[in-house]
Amino acid sequence: MSTIFAATDAQTLQNIALGLSGVSVLVAIIMMKVISSIVGKVISAAVFVAIALGGYSQRAQISDCVDKVKSQATATASVDTTCTFFGQDVTVKVPLPSK
Prior knowledge:
The protein is of the alpha+beta class. It has helices spanning about 10-35, 40-70; strands spanning about 10, 80-85, 90-95. A three-stranded mixed beta sheet has the order 1-3-2. The mean pLDDT is about 75.
């Protein structure tokens, strides 16, 4: 998985995590219409809400990693750092804040 996200910028990873959350909620809504039993609806809703929360927490984790690097940066070029995304170490290009 780290080769897929090799040298990816932080905004792309945040968009992937947010997209995962949105798609998961959308699938949960569709499954609520398709599944007829109450137990099936509850179980499927719980699974998809857990996936959505996981995606959102990964987005927050990437944001925290980027903020930490930006606060420590002093160079004039972009910095490559390693962050964790769904348990995989990925290299993220972090643009430095403008002064």
